[in-house]
Specification:
heterodimer; A: about 350 residues; alpha/beta; eight-stranded mixed sheet; three-stranded antiparallel sheet; 12 helices; about 20% strand; B: about 600 residues; Pyruvate-ferredoxin Oxidoreductase, domain 3; 4 domains; seven-stranded mixed sheet; six-stranded mixed sheet; 20 helices; about 40% helix; globular; binds thiamine diphosphate; binds iron/sulfur cluster; binds magnesium ion; oxidoreductase (chain A); oxidoreductase activity, acting on the aldehyde or oxo group of donors, iron-sulfur protein as acceptor (chain A)
């Protein structure tokens, strides 16, 4: 089995973005996932988001752990460097990469097994450090790649394909991200691209730790009756709190909705997050209220989606560490090595 | 029993209680001897505990420059009643015991073959100070003052050192000097000074410096251009990351903006530390972690990834004995095999073995060049003995013309000019491919990093032939490494001999001394100090030049010997084990004893005697 390069024949009428790229320029090689896998829709949404934001593909680094979800970075952004690391440890690799060059955009892709089971610790710590990244968990409630075992996000009582119930309490990554201080938090559904693309765009423009939990049904192992991560179940229980639009540029937008139904949040880079409210009393800038809201609705069996929390003025790990503006990987000997004069002085002090 | 008499050649041991503030007083003592121009080598012997348990500080004074541990104690400064019996026992016949005589002890508590020197330290302190913390701290300075009289140490030197130590806190200088003289004057008036052991001004230090190996390695990382340090605290490696932090704050903070040209992250565990290092190095920064054996165990999976994905990473392993509940504060060379073959699959790694702080600095800086040049993890194997003890060593040197060797990195210009880029393509025949940093070129040079399921152009494949092709290239790369790691250092005995010894790392000082001890017994020994793995071809030459080769190590299983036999296919019968592994540093007495024993049991006739 070798890789399948995608034919790069451009349709002359394909729309281009500000950089002159078409959507095809943001694609990768052909997916080898199961037909209908939710993960492929997320890849498509990432392509869409990067294209619409006119991001230079080579300025994005995509990192992942291990799993079907973690394989997907091969299937988008073919002109970006990618790193398929080890199971559950993408967050540390991404953190290191981010430290080395603060100028790139870091996109971490993971699965629910990768992040909530084996990698729960790294998930948590990368978020509490405020690494500037987009961290997407493609959440299907199972280990797809090892053939359908329950993961740590599977709901208690949910049944696997053979009818056996999951006995353990689920880990709610959104709840954890809120508690750990992520500064942009969204939940999407691979079956709702219209909602997902702007969520990803908002995360890409956000400075700080942006986390997206995207329910992404596994058609091979977790799409049956009795599963709480199947397409049908998620559609039935989806409770969106808002609908996001990401508007670039600094122009003030005209609000053409009834008062109280739209909220506009300006992020540090000047981009505007325009939120059409669905749940009228939901305030995505209030962390504690968001926690309460989520707990209450989750208890009713609802899957709350949308932009759940944002701190538009967040800082990141580089800010906390007070590192130089120039990326470390471009620093020269003169910037890094103190040289002989300093060493002679030090030698003298050590006698 | 005649009391021992020695000038500039004896061992003083301080028995203290952990957390009693004795460390800086003891250090003052050691430094005063150095300042008198006499080599002194201190060693901390401490428990895995913060307060209350016994600690020892041993100072070997040796004008002949024996810097290894000697074993035995000539003067015991017994400040810990808890360890009295064992401390008393460890004194050499004819040696001296200095103790706090405030509370009288029965004669059964002493030995008749030593000189007992009692001084009512507690009583003196209680009379002088009211504050309990002061009583505790100044007691230490008071005994240093008394020792200066007993051992004939120049008090002016001590005063200068106190002045330097409290430069920033002027007030403390006078009170410390006062305490010093309190002790000194008491001793001069009440004790027979000096005793048979004396320090006499000499000129045996030269331009050498005095520093811990961990600090030196941290400094080496600064000079080597490391910008990212990710670590998780573990004895005895913690002070390496702390050293890096200290020197970065001194040398790497932008004077105008105050911004830092480094990032140090205390990770949540060793998996995360090595993950961060690999991520940073993948992205073109120089990065390292510092840990010890248990941390290396946790890093195994990632080390394999870095090996196969060919990502530079520098790992300092400051070795210690045993697992976490083993002997974490005792020294050993016990991670040699773990490091050499770390991780799953067919992996081999580059190892460096510094002998002292000077080499810790050099090999630290070198490790970053090697890691970049070879695109692979590089281990620097220190141990507690050189890592956490100050040691006299050659001054640090640097060449301002030296530039970081970033290895084979394709630039945007290379890619623009249309140079063929295959991430795993061996263009030069040395097994080392080219890499690109992320973000280099808009349309060329991007690749997807993964373990081994890819071809020479980093395209996904699970074909056996491509896998094998890659594995063979990795072997070629390892051969290239042989030519790049530091060469072993060979020393010939004064006369021709068929006996050789191989040693490495912190055994060095004891080995040098053992060679002269053995020469005194008529056993001539050629030596080879191994400084890196893979082994340079000089190692093969050395072994074939000798009939019997002793491999001197500080572990139970003869790990370097195993590595030599496995990698070089030497005849095991030719390599004799000399193994020290009780957690204390190896001594010359031990090495010479073992070798002499083996020589006589093997009936090896030294060459000199065989010639009629
Ligand atoms: C250390 C380690 N243990 C186990 C595995 C086997 N493994 C591969 S993928 C996977 C689970 C992936 O689940 P998830 O992250 O949910 O990804 P999905 O396939 O569902 O997208 C496991 C257990 C591994 N690769 N590494
Ligand atoms: S097994 Fe499940 S997660 Fe994996 S590719 Fe198939 S559908 Fe997707
Ligand atoms: Mg999964």
């Amino acid at each position: 089995m070798t890789y399948l390069p995608k034919p790069k024949l451009h349709h002359p009428k394909l729309p281009t973005n500000e950089l002159g790229f078409t959507r095809r320029d943001y694609e990768g090689s052909i997916s080898t996932l199961c037909a209908g896998c939710g993960h492929d829709s997320i890849s498509a949404a990432i392509v869409h988001a990067c294209f619409e934001l006119s991001l230079p593909p080579h300025r994005i680094a995509k990192l992942s752990g291990i799993g079907c979800s973690s394989k997907t970075p091969t299937y988008f952004l073919g002109n970006s460097h990618g790193f398929n690391s080890v199971h559950g440890r993408m967050p540390s690799v991404l953190t290191g990469a981010n430290l080395a060059n603060r100028d790139l955009i870091y996109l971490g892709v993971s699965g629910d097994g990768d992040s909530a089971s084996i990698g729960l610790g790294q998930f948590a710590h990368s978020i509490r450090r405020g690494v500037n990244m987009v961290y997407i968990v493609e959440n299907n409630g199972v280990y797809g790649l090892t053939k359908g075992q329950f993961s740590a996000t599977a709901d208690k009582g949910a049944r696997n394909k053979r009818g056996l119930a999951n006995l353990d309490e689920p880990i709610d990554l959104i709840g954890m991200a809120l508690q750990l201080g992520a500064t942009y938090i969204g939940r999407g559904f691979s079956g709702d691209k219209a909602q997902l693309v702007p969520l990803i765009k908002g995360a890409l423009t956000h400075k700080g730790a942006a986390f997206i939990d995207c329910i992404s049904p596994c058609v091979a192992f977790n799409n049956h009756v009795g599963s709480t991560k199947s397409f049908d179940y998620v559609r039935e229980h989806n409770a969106a709190v808002n609908f996001l639009d990401v508007i670039e540029g600094r122009d003030e937008i005209v609000v053409d909705h009834a008062p109280g139904t739209v909220e506009v949040v300006r992020q540090h880079d000047g981009s505007l997050l325009k939120l059409r409210k669905i749940a009228r009393d939901y305030d995505p800038t209030d962390r504690i209220a968001a926690m309460n809201f989520l707990q209450q609705h989750q208890a009713r069996g609802e899957i709350v989606t949308g932009l759940l929390y944002v701190d538009p003025d967040a800082d990141d790990l580089h800010g906390y560490l007070d590192t130089a503006e120039k990326p470390f990987n471009q620093m020269t000997d003169a910037e890094l090595c103190p040289g002989t004069t300093a060493l002679e002085k030090l030698n003298a002090a050590l006698r | 029993m005649r009391p021992l008499e020695a000038v500039n050649d004896f061992v003083v041991k301080f028995a203290n209680v952990n957390g009693s503030g004795s460390a800086s007083a003891n250090q003052l003592f050691a430094k005063s001897i150095l300042r008198m121009g006499v080599p002194a080598t201190p060693r901390n012997i401490f428990p895995s505990n913060i307060q209350g348990l016994p600690t020892w500080y041993e100072v070997r004074v040796s004008e002949a420059n024996h810097l290894g541990a000697r074993g035995g104690t000539d003067l015991m400064v017994a400040m810990n009643p808890q360890t009295w019996d064992q401390d008393l026992k460890s004194i050499e016949p004819g040696g001296y015991l200095f103790y706090d005589s405030t509370r009288p002890l029965p004669p059964s508590k002493f030995r008749s073959d030593i000189t007992v020197i009692g001084m009512p330290l507690t009583a003196i302190c209680n009379a002088e100070y009211t504050d309990s913390r002061q009583r505790q701290l100044f007691k230490n300075i008071i005994y240093v003052g008394a020792l200066s009289a007993l051992l004939d140490i120049d008090p002016a030197v001590l005063e200068t050192l106190i002045g330097e130590q409290f430069k920033a806190k002027e007030k403390l200088i006078d009170v410390n000097i006062h305490a010093l003289h309190l002790g000194r004057d008491y001793a001069l008036q009440n004790l027979a000074c000096p005793i048979g052991l004396r320090v006499r001004k000499a000129d045996a230090i030269g331009d050498r410096i005095f520093i811990e190996g961990n600090a030196a390695a941290g400094l080496g990382a600064v000079y080597g251009g490391a910008t990212v340090c990710a670590w998780y605290p573990i004895t005895p490696s913690t002070s390496l990351a702390e050293g890096f932090t200290r020197y970065c704050n001194r040398y790497r903070v932008d004077k105008e903006t105050g911004k830092k040209r480094f990032a140090i992250v205390q990770a949540e565990d060793e998996l995360a530390s090595i993950g961060m290092v690999i991520g940073a190095a993948w992205n073109g920064a120089r990065a390292f972690t510092a840990t010890s054996g248990p941390g290396i165990s946790l890093m195994q999976e990632f080390i394999g990834l870095a090996h196969f994905a060919e990502i530079p990473a520098v790992i300092f392993d400051v070795q210690r004995a045993g697992p976490s509940t083993g002997m974490p504060t005792r020294t050993q060379q016990c991670d040699v095999l773990t490091a050499a073959y770390a991780s799953h699959g067919d992996t081999k790694h580059v190892l460096l073995f510094p002998e002292d702080p000077h080499e810790c600095f050099e090999m630290s800086a070198l490790a970053f060049d090697l890691a970049d040049r070879l695109q692979t993890p590089v281990f620097v194997l220190l141990d507690l003995d050189i890592g956490m003890n100050e040691r006299l060593c050659a001054p640090f040197r640097w060449d301002d013309n030296r530039r970081m060797d970033r290895g084979k990195v394709m630039t945007a210009e290379d890619l623009e000019a249309g140079r063929d880029f295959g991430r795993y393509l061996d263009v030069d025949g040395d097994g080392i491919p080219y890499r690109t940093y992320p973000g280099t070129h808009p349309t060329r040079g991007a690749f997807f990093t993964r373990g081994t399921s890819r071809d020479r152009y980093a395209r996904y494949t699970e074909e056996g032939a491509a896998y094998q092709d890659n594995m063979e290239r990795l072997l070629r790369k390892f051969d290239t490494a042989k030519t790049l790691v530091p060469r072993p250092i060979r020393r010939a005995a004064a006369e021709p001999t068929r006996l050789g010894a191989i040693y490495y790392g912190s055994s060095s000082a004891a080995m040098d001394e053992a060679v002269s001890l053995l020469a005194g017994q008529g056993i001539a020994l050629d030596t080879l100090r191994v400084r890196g793995f893979p082994f340079h071809e000089d190692v093969r030459r050395f072994v074939s030049d000798h009939d019997q080769v002793f491999v001197v190590e500080q572990n139970r299983d003869a790990q370097l010997r195993t590595l030599l036999i496995t990698e070089e296919e030497f005849d095991p019968a030719k390599l004799s084990r000399v193994l020290h592994y009780d957690g204390s540093p190896i001594t010359a007495r031990f090495i010479a004893g073992r070798i002499a024993e083996t020589v006589s049991s093997l009936k090896i006739v030294p060459l000199r005697k065989a010639v009629p």
